[in-house]
Design brief:
Layout: H1 10-108
């Protein structure tokens, strides 16, 4: 009896199906592996996103504080500048008064 292994032979069909099943199981295994990696990456991205949002919030608070401090310093510096200008004017007036007194004393011979 000669062995006929054509497309209609049952053992041939079973072997072909076993090969196909094995190939599909390999693909499924790869898909599951990829899904696990994707799920892990998704969790990592979500965690990093939350941490980044927290850091952005902290930085925004720090910036707001720094801007408020800067505004206060500018106001205080403006007041100091006005006071310096007043003192310079007073100093000029006093200098002029002293010079006038000295000139009077000189004229008076003292």
């Amino acid at each position: 009896m000669t062995e006929h292994r054509g497309p209609q032979d049952l053992t041939f069909l079973i072997e072909q199906h076993k090969k196909e099943i094995w190939e599909w199981k390999q693909k499924e295994s790869k898909w599951l592996e990829d899904k696990v990696l994707l799920d892990g990456n998704k969790k990592l991205v979500n965690k990093l996103s939350e941490e980044l949002q927290d850091r952005v919030k902290q930085l925004n608070e720090s910036l707001a504080n720094a801007l408020e401090i800067n505004e206060n310093h500018q106001r205080y510096n403006g007041k100091l500048q006005l006071r310096v200008t007043e003192l310079e004017e007073d100093n000029k007036k006093l200098s002029k008064q002293i010079e006038d007194y000295l000139n009077r004393f000189r004229k008076a011979g003292l």
